[in-house]
Amino acid sequence: MDVIAKPVVWEHPLSPYAQKVKMALREKGVAFETRMPTGIGVGTTDDAFGRASPRREVPAFIDGDVAIFESRIIVDYIEEKWPAPPLLPPAPADRARCRMIEEVVDTQLEAIGWGLMELRVFRRGDDATRAKLETEAQRQIGQFHAFLTRHLGDRPFFAGEIFGRPDMAALPHLLASAKPAEGTPLAAWVARCMARESAKLTAAESQASLAGMAQVGEAVKAGLFKRQYRDHRLEWMMRSGGVEIVRDGMAAGNIRFSTEIA
Ligand SMILES: N[C@@H](CCC(=O)N[C@@H](CS)C(=O)NCC(=O)O)C(=O)O
After folding, report:
1. Residue 192 included in any domain
2. What element of type H or E holds 67?
3. 45 in a domain, yes or no?
4. Taking the chain, what is the end-to-end CA distance rounded to the nearest angstrom?
5. Is residue 21 a part of any domain in this protein?
6. Contacts of 197 (CB under 8 A, 6+ apart)
7. CA torsion, points 13, 18, 19, 25, in degrees to nearest 10?
8. What whole-number distance in Å separates Cα of residue 89 and Cα of residue 160?
């Protein structure tokens, strides 16, 4: 009898994009394996992970001969291959609303959380720069909360009655850098999401991986690990007042931009 290999998610448990993919698979009951790339943050591409993910970003998804990078393209594939239960509501207008939430969360909200990690975990910048960027981040998170609260309205989930794609995209942020205040509609939404096994397990894996971050901090200082300043992240740092952090990181060789496609 042929043994059919399980799909593989290349991931880091802290990555909100990888978390979205794992929650999608878990909601659909698809068994999968996870692998963590060695040497993520260095930028080389000549290994199995680099072949699946030419930008060397997690998540990447391997399903037999199929290799896919970019979390939204991965979740599209999962949805098309395993349609039940659906991760988007049926009406076109609702589907568009969900996709817009996923878009702003994946780009602009993620950039704020990532920037805060640069300040709090990797201690970039001097005290004054860190304080200025913290204040700016909190202002932006406040605006994001207002935006999300408006879009949630009186629905149980951003996807309506189902725990769907926009919920899976937003949850990792609202459990971490963008925690809503207790008693708010967003805090009630977090609690509803966390009642899902898929969310609870994925969040626990993310939490457990935090312990390893101290070592990464040392590797970054030594220039062995380069943090990826791409797209919205770079823009966030520049426009929020961290131009010297970018300059110093480039001089120290411990930041990198996107890996070129080759
Ligand atoms: N747009 C991509 C973003 C993926 C991404 O930025 N992943 C980060 C981790 S959260 C990564 O692997 N960065 C490479 C690095 O840190 O070197 C997606 O949605 O999959």
Report:
1. no
2. strand 66-69
3. yes
4. 39
5. yes
6. 26
7. -120
8. 7
Query: pTM of whole model > 0.70?
Result: yes
Structural domain boundaries, residue 44: 8-81
Measured between alpha carbons, how far is 165 from 157 in angstroms, rounded to an integer? 10
What residues does ligand 1 touch, defined as CB less than 6 Å away? Answer: 15, 17, 40-41, 56-59, 70-72, 106, 228
Domain count, the chain: 1
Specify the residue with its C-alpha closest to ligand 1, atom 15.
Answer: 41
> Within a domain: residue 58?
yes
Closest residue to atom 2 of ligand 1, CA basis: 70
Q: For residue range 68-93, what is the model confidence (pLDDT) as tens digits?
A: 999 999 999 999 999 999 999 999 99
Alpha-carbon 1 to chain mean position: 38
Query: Could you report the per-residue pLDDT of 180-233, keeping only the tens digit for each?
Result: 999 999 999 999 999 999 999 999 999 999 887 777 778 787 877 899 999 999
